[in-house]
Amino acid sequence: MNTLRKKALLKSLFNLLSIAMVGKILSMLSRLVMVRSIGATSMSLFSLINPLMVLFINLASIGLPIATSTLIAKRPKDSRKFFVTAFLIGMGISIILMIAIFFLAPVFSKYALKNEDTTLAVYGLGLLIPLVTTSSIIKGIYIGKGKVQATTNSSIAEEIFRLVFLVLAIDLFSRKSPSMGALGAVIGMALGEIGQTLYLFFIAPKNTKKKCVTWLFCSEYDSVVAAGELFKISLPATSSRLIGSLTYFFEPIIYTAILSKLNIDQTKVLLDYGMLTGYVFPLLLMPGFLTTALSNFFLPEIARSYENNDIKRAKSSFYSLIFFSLLLGIVFSTIIFFFSEDIMKILYNDTSGASFAKNLTFPFLIYYIETPCITTLHALNKSKQAMFSTLVSSIFRLLVLALLLKRFTIYAVAISTILSATIDILLNFINIVFIFVRNDKKARLEVKCKKNLFWHRC
Question: Which among 300, 314, 401, 430 could disulfide-bond with 416, CB atoms 3.0 to 4.6 Å apart, if both were Cys?
Answer without folding.
Answer: 401
